[in-house]
């Protein structure tokens, strides 16, 4: 899990840029390397240690919240909101069960991801691009040339809202399920924003009314088995760029959150979805909620499949300006961040080489 840069990387003949270009021009991602039979992790993937220890596996579990209980018994709403408030303020993460999305839909979504990545490589290449304005953006590491190390995963991004794409423009292997899953996650997300609004002692519709649920980006990831997982990471430490993320992960595991300078596992729970606070929600909540630093370990098992739904309008131009919500401010609690647009924040985030240091620090008042 990134035990340090081997001596080989210090060789004078290591031309990093050339190796990055060769990897990119292959248009087959990390899976292409594995399919080619590599037994050693290429040097561009080597990651440095961060100095934080891994907590004991049985030492922590992020809250598991049954949100269906609120509908069945409204008297439980207060306790559910309290748990959402506590988890969002301490960890920036919680898991939800009985969330209303059928298990069959979750399973088919993961199978759609598998079908896409495991189709014929030559067919899949048609989707490979670094043009973020494309309807479907498939590549490995959006920040390939800027990041200090390359992550051991491939990703596809599709913007599903505010302007849904023509389904005919989506990959056949996962077209129908992405449309259906996006509808279901959108409904869940809007409900989560109600609970989060109440956790801030605001009107239940407040976060929806200011546009937090307007955009939805679907990112589906494929983490191939890694021959030397101690040398690299599936996803380097980062916070999310959005208001809120709803994550579907398979049974492989590897997701971790940093808390009290230790990495804690977020083990898969059958039927559960992981919910985490994004940078923009930390900003508008004036630090009432925390955007948790997290990462994914590389593993010899797998492939690991996951689907992250980002509630954000991303790089889409919009005049909407976001700052700390005025109802949360007082003389004793002044705004911690300056106002920004989602696009401005997203562009700034994308220029950073290292996301272990939150991009929010550059927006402090």
UniProtKB/TrEMBL annotation:
Pfam families: 2OG-FeII_Oxy, DIOX_N. Belongs to the iron/ascorbate-dependent oxidoreductase family. It comes from Sesamum indicum (Oriental sesame). This is 1-aminocyclopropane-1-carboxylate oxidase homolog 1. The gene is LOC105171716. GO terms for molecular function: 2-oxoglutarate-dependent dioxygenase activity; L-ascorbic acid binding; metal ion binding. Keywords: Iron, Metal-binding, Oxidoreductase, Vitamin C. It comes from the Eukaryota. InterPro entries: DIOX_N, IPNS-like_FE2OG_OXY, IPNS-like_sf, Oxoglu/Fe-dep_dioxygenase_dom. Residues 214-314 form the Fe2OG dioxygenase domain. GO terms for biological process: coumarin biosynthetic process; response to molecule of fungal origin.
